[in-house]
């Protein structure tokens, strides 16, 4: 059986999007894995139980090289010298774990994982490097969000600038695009955005040579683990509940949505409804809600555990998706993972998005309610959903077995081509 050295930064049983992507990419492939990971907390008991029952987990031999909080640097963890020292230690440990594996797999966010791929390709040209991407680094729009940066305090600005300098380095991403043997993206839009930025700002190798190595593996789910199942909502009252789960920050802006809610209350004063938010929420948005007299229509809570999150989704009449909104309504590469959960729950969705996004493409395949970032367009969406009860289901639910077959074929094709 072939072997693969896996360098993901965080890994299960810590439950984040990148850990999910790594495990789902690899679990059904016919390989053994040596994983060099950073331990992060909280670890999820339900996820650990799922792993213990999964016979494929026995193929993963995990070395905990360090704790993620030792490597991470932000405003709450300000010892930069300590963080860089631990980052260097993690990269060195990962490189030292190479003992003849056929493949190296990196999850290329945070970008210091990429540095191991660069080192190993230089030292061992025959090793095949699989680089996976969930978000862009080079000219990521969130890094150039002037409004958010302006609202930072001076210490926060200093921490953010250090983060950009050491943790999300465009050159690392460019190295992966140039040197990896297989490039794996979660959407066509992410692939195209990253290649476009590379050609514009680096361009050492041709766009054609990069595209030959690219493949897309959509977000997917493991049926045996799936907690995300629809249940019949109890008919408690006639209040229509529309819920959002996740952070409202940066370019995930909702001012036009708030104004649309105000217009909706003026047009339908007798309609009972509630907007529920679970997760980080901007103070400026809270103030706007209060200024417009909308406090009775919004219930804002902190982030809740995953099991409770699924329960709340099921209890809601509809769910909200707030996408990344770029100032110039430009092409954007971000795909919210909630789309798959909303699809599995068979919930009616109201999305505030843009036409140049993966969300818009996916939602429009089933005529789900995708609204532009415009209060009148959003008002129409609220009317369709709450007043006219228009069905608005999204279909985005690839199984892990289906996704693994795509990746297995791409690896076989890579092996047949040989290394570059």
Question: Any overview of this molecule?
Answer:
- The chain folds into two domains: 2-219 and 399-417, Rossmann fold (3-Layer(aba) Sandwich), CATH 3.40.50; 240-387, Glycogen Phosphorylase B (Rossmann fold, 3-Layer(aba) Sandwich), CATH 3.40.50.2000.
- It is 42% helix and 18% strand.
- The chain is built from 17 helices and 15 strands.
- It has helices at 17-26, 45-53, 68-71, 80-96, 112-123, 146-150, 154-166, 170-179, 188-201, 207-211, 255-267, 283-291, 306-315, 338-345, 358-364, 375-387, 400-417; strands at residues 2-10, 31-39, 60-67, 103-107, 128-133, 182-185, 214-216, 220-221, 240-245, 273-278, 298-301, 318-322, 348-352, 369-371, 398-399.
- The chain has a seven-stranded parallel β-sheet with strand order 3-2-1-4-5-6-7, sandwiched between helices.
- Strand 10, helix 12 (283-291) and strand 11 (298-301) form a beta-alpha-beta unit.
- Helix 5 (112-123) packs parallel to helix 8 (170-179) and helix 11 crosses helix 16 (375-387).
- The protein is globular and about 70 Å long.
- The chain starts with a strand and ends with a helix.
Number of strands: 15
Amount of helix: 40-55%
Order of neighbouring strands in the sheet with most strands: 3-2-1-4-5-6-7
Corresponding CATH architecture of the largest domain: 3-Layer(aba) Sandwich
Query: According to CATH, what is the class of the largest domain?
Result: Alpha Beta
Radius of gyration: 22 Å
Low-pLDDT stretches are: none
What is the first-to-last residue Cα distance? 23 Å
Q: What structural class do you assign from the helix and strand content?
A: alpha/beta
Query: How would you sum up the major sheet?
Result: 7 strands, parallel
What general form does the structure show?
globular
What share of the residues does DSSP label as strand, in percent?
15-25%
Give the averaged pLDDT, no decimals: 93
| Tally of domains | 2
Q: Please tally the helical runs, counting DSSP H or I stretches of 4 or more residues.
A: 17
CATH topology description of the largest domain = Rossmann fold
């Amino acid at each position: 059986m072939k072997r693969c050295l896996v360098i993901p930064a965080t890994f299960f049983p810590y439950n984040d999007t990148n850990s999910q992507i790594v495990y789902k990419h690899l679990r059904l492939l016919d390989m053994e894995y040596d994983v060099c990971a950073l331990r992060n907390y909280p670890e999820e008991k339900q996820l650990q139980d799922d792993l213990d029952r999964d016979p494929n987990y026995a193929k993963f031999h995990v070395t905990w090289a360090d704790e993620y909080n030792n490597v991470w640097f932000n405003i709450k963890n300000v010892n930069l010298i300590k963080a860089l020292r631990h980052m260097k230690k993690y990269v060195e440990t990962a490189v030292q774990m190479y003992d003849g594996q056929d493949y190296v797999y990196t999850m290329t966010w945070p970008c210091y994982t990429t540095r191991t791929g660069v080192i190993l390709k230089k030292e061992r040209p025959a090793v095949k490097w699989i680089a996976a991407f969930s978000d862009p680094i080079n000219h990521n729009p969130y890094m150039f969000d002037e409004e958010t940066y302006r609202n930072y305090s001076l210490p926060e600005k200093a921490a953010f600038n250090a983060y950009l300098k050491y943790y999300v380095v465009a050159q690392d991403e460019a190295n992966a695009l140039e040197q990896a043997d297989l490039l794996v993206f979660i959407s066509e839009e992410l692939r195209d955005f990253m290649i476009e930025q590379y050609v514009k700002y680096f361009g050492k190798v041709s766009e054609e040579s990069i595209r030959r190595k690219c493949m897309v593996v959509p977000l997917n789910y493991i049926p045996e683990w799936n907690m995300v199942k629809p249940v019949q909502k109890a008919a408690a009252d006639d209040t229509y509940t529309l819920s959002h789960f996740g952070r409202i920050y940066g370019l995930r802006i909702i001012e036009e949505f708030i104004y649309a809610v105000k217009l909706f209350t003026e047009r339908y004063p007798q309609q009972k409804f509630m907007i529920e938010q679970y997760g980080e929420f901007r103070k400026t948005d809270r103030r706007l809600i209060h200024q417009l007299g909308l406090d009775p229509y919004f219930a804002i809570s902190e982030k809740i555990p995953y099991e409770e999150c699924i329960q709340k989704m099921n209890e809601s009449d509809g769910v909200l998706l707030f996408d990344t909104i770029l100032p110039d309504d430009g092409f954007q590469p971000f795909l919210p993972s909630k789309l798959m959960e909303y699809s599995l729950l068979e919930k009616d969705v109201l999305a505030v998005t843009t036409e140049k996004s993966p969300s818009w493409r996916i939602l429009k395949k089933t005529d789900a309610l995708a609204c532009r970032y415009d209060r009148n367009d959003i008002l129409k969406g609220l009317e369709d959903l709450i007043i006219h009860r228009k069905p608005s289901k999204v279909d985005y639910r690839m199984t892990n077995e289906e996704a693994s077959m795509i990746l297995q074929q791409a690896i076989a094709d890579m092996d047949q081509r040989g290394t570059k």
